[in-house]
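We now fix the convention by which a protein and its fold are recorded. The integers have meaning only within a learned vocabulary of local backbone shapes. A record is reproduced here so that you can trace the correspondence yourselves:
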Amino acid sequence: MRPVTVPNADLHCHSVHSDGVLEPAELARRAHGNGVTLWALTDHDEVAGTADAAAAALALGMPFVPGVEISVTWAGRTVHIVGLRVDPANAELAAGLARIREGRAGRAAEIGRRLDARLGISGCLEGALRYALNPGLVSRTHFARFLVDQGHCPTIQSVFDRHLGQGKPANVPGRWASLDQAVAWITGAGGRAVIAHPGRYAYSQLEYGALFDAFREAGGEGIEVVTGSHRPAQFDEYAKVARHYGFLASRGSDFHSPGESRVDLGTLPPLPEDLKPVWYDWLE
């Protein structure tokens, strides 16, 4: 019997096409250099970087998974649903992502107004736009980079803690997709839907149970267990969730930038051996 090779899978990261700082090809080279053997690009509400990422991965001999991270509103808060192995040319997926991006422009303008008033300055929106390759996809991270570079806050995290995080004065809720819509777009595009970094959401235990039930009923299949957005203690917590609900387990760094991200591409610990990985039928 041949030994089973466990891939060093990194199925969550971001490029300049959303709120990362590296081009897709640069991400591919960084992932490959760090020993990644199964890689996905999952930009927020955007698949424009997929072709470049796929070409770079192919040249490196690194298996590539087309992906996306869709913004969802559920129970009054934002949840992110990762779609893996999607067809980026699928018409319904493309149309849904375009609708989400349309709503980002008004949100960014309001964030800019609130930051200008709070900090007693002007030009926060214009500043954030300088950090965004796609002017239709300006995120809180772009504002945070601007404020750090201008000396208003020492770190990206401190911007979120003071101004942009949940419940902070410049936090503007987005008008995102519903959970059912996001899962339907992903599955309709041939993909597998995964709840991104579930430990990040400010839900009660009752709300979490309802979220997992609703996600499974909509056709969702997996959750991120080992992710750069979880504390190490949460790896075991969400492994238990995966076992309880029968979810497939995913793994990804949520890498955005060499200078900002807590975890580099390909450097996370492996999934617990008893969990069924989201890629279980992709490498045959």
